[in-house]
Amino acid sequence: MFKILVSDPISDNGLQQFSAANDVEVTKLTGLNEEELIAIIHEYDALLVRSQTKVTPRIMEAGVRLKVIGRAGVGVDNIDLEAATSYGIIVINAPDGNTITTSEHTFAMMLSLARNIPQAYRKTIAGLWDRKTFIGVELNNKTLAVLGLGRIGLEVAKRATAFGMKIMGYDPYFSEEQAKAAGIQLATIDEIVQQADFITVHTPLTNDTRHLISEQQFAIMKKGMRMINCARGGIIDEQALLVALDEGIVAGAAFDVFEHEPPEADHPFLKHPNIIVTPHLGASTLEAQENVAIDVAEQIIHILHNQPFKNAVNMPPVPNELLSKIQPYFTLSEQLGKALAQMTDGAVEEVIIDCSGELATINITPLIPYVLKGVLTHHLGANQVNIVNSVHLAKLRDITVTERKTLLTEKITNEITIHIKTTVEERWVTGSILPSVGERLVKIGPYPVEIPLEGDILNISHQDKPGIIGSVGMLLGDNGINIASMQVGRNEVGGSAVMIVKIDKKVTAQVIKDLTTIEGIKRVRLISFDQ
Ligand SMILES: NC(=O)c1ccc[n+]([C@@H]2O[C@H](COP(=O)([O-])OP(=O)(O)OC[C@H]3O[C@@H](n4cnc5c(N)ncnc54)[C@H](O)[C@@H]3O)[C@@H](O)[C@H]2O)c1
Ligand SMILES: O=C(O)CC[C@@H](O)C(=O)O
Asked: What residues does ligand 1 touch, defined as CB less than 6 Å away?
């Protein structure tokens, strides 16, 4: 039974997803502090949060069973991603479910700002009928600048077009062609601040975007402009904005997010007549909360059941088209790495992944975490390594990874050859997915074999001479070990040879030692695929 802890308020309709899986138990415990979470997290396989729970390295360290942290929403700034990666915990989010909702909230803020709706409401319900103070401005024919042309920024731009606004945009990762298609004029930040009547920010908060709008930008800003932040507190410098408001450079601002949330009761934004605020409500609609909860619950179930999943934040994304081609090779890559690590002496310095056939024509980088997981599992233990932290663990050990491709014209079979260079030797194995039989080890070094990548095998290097196969069979038989199959390869008659013995039962270290004493046997390695 997998145990899932839900530590923030999450839509019940979304959580219903979990009832479809009959091996999942959900516990809802909201409002816990760090110490309270640390005390219970060791029982859980998955943690599901919104933005309130701060998932710290200490919580992850205590979460010895934690495989996945799901964020029902986009921003993962409340989760320490670096720590999650080093503890091998997958972090997933739900990037699409609240896009429309947040773009609508941005628009609600922009219209409220243009027409002073919160201020007018406050006065009206206080019994004052003030029709003079609240002269607003139209959006029609005004210039809106969108900083960050991602999911939400583009939806905001679409809506602004319908309101007759001219759209300027800034996003270093957005091309001229995309901008043209969306009817957005790309510009520099300086051009934007000089021309825009409204600025809305839709970037993540990063070192590059922190205080993207600050004193320097306010100094050259168009007088009387208005600005909106429904993305993350800190993108617009709060102190510099207050000065710009007092100097009349900025006519009004609408903020859904703050540098510190919730803001202190005496935060100047809460009292300023020209600032309107909401308490991080951008994603708060029934529809968005249901969407993000469903998305993230589905992915958590996939991860717990070792099925393919999407939206991992601490793993490089694999586009769907590539995923369908490369996914069948994930297990093969891992098992080859596992086999090779057990055949090799010394500390691993380099892993080379060499692909042929159609694999040589596609991006094979997604195989790397699987190969490294296989290689490192033998050295670090299955509990310590997974596809999230294997690349990180390899880097910590100065293991370099090289990708190579053998072109289609030279080789037509889809094969993966993994080489390991260690401090003392270099070895390699090749695997393939064979029609009707599936994943197979097809070469050990230069020797062709055909071995399923499961159970236990003995890899015996020996000299090609009469009697060796018989002696091996006899010794194993004397120790009650049944041979399921045996394959032998050699480079030339009487030369070096390799014997692969598939055994039904684990051998002891003593049996391996005894095998090495047989004359002509150079080396014996047990390869366990079920580690
Ligand atoms: N208020 C809320 O409740 C709420 C709800 C959802 C999302 N958000 C926040 O809104 C923001 C946008 O979300 P999204 O889903 O559109 O994200 P997204 O990843 O789709 O878009 C972000 C865009 O910012 C751009 N960007 C990155 N660095 C930049 C820089 N230095 N200058 C300009 N552009 C830069 C990226 O290229 C990308 O196009 C995020 O911060 C997210 O956390 C807030
Ligand atoms: O959970 C929330 O309401 C915050 C949503 C939003 O900030 C996000 O990043 O998705």
From this structure: 74-75, 95, 98-99, 102, 147-153, 170-173, 202-204, 206, 208-209, 230-232, 256-257, 280, 282-283
Report the alpha-carbon distance of residue 497 to residue 465 in Å, rounded.
Answer: 9
Mean pLDDT, all residues of the chain: 94
pTM as predicted: 0.79
Round to whole Å and give the CA distance between 390 and 337.
12
- The interface predicted TM-score of the complex, written ipTM, equals 0.99
Q: Which atom of ligand 1 is nearest to the CA of 283?
A: 3
C-alpha atoms less than 13 angstroms from C-alpha of 288 in its C-beta half-sphere? 20
Q: Which domains does the chain have, with CATH numbers?
A: 2-95+287-315 (3.40.50.720), 99-277 (3.40.50.720), 321-528 (3.30.1330.90)
CA dihedral 497, 503, 505, 507 (to 10 degrees): 0
Q: b/e string for 219-252 if b means 16 or more Cβ within 10 A? A: eebbeebbbbbbbbbbbbbbebbbebbeeebbbb
Q: Which residues contact 392 (CB under 8 A, 6 or more apart)?
A: 85, 86
pLDDT digits (tens, 9 = 90+) for 293-348: 999 999 999 999 988 788 899 988 888 889 889 999 999 999 999 999 999 999 89
Annotated catalytic, 261? yes
- The whole-angstrom separation of Cα 185 and Cα 157 is 11
Task: Express each pLDDT in 202-247 by its tens digit.
Answer: 999 988 899 999 999 999 999 999 999 999 999 999 999 999 999 9
For residue 102, the CA-to-ligand 1 centroid distance in Å is 11
Q: Which two tokens stand for residue 457?
A: 């095998």
496 neighbors 463 (Cβ within 8 angstroms): yes
3-class SS letters over 279-332: CCCCCCCHHHHHHHHHHHHHHHHHHHCCCCCCCECCCCCCCHHHHHHHHHHHHH
> What's the half-sphere exposure (Cβ side, CA atoms, 13 Å) at 208?
8
Distance CA 120, CA 392 (A): 55
Helix, strand or coil, per DSSP, at residue 70: strand
Q: Per the residue annotation, which of 138, 261, 425, 454 is the catalytic one?
A: 261
Cα-to-centroid distance, 261 and ligand 2 (Å): 12
Beta-bridge partners for 440: 432, 452
Active site residue 280: yes
Measure 80 CA to ligand 2 centroid, in angstroms: 16
- Per DSSP (E only), the strands in 113-159 are 143-147
* Nearest to 98, CA basis, from 318, 312, 281: 281
CB atoms near residue 512 (< 10 Å): 14
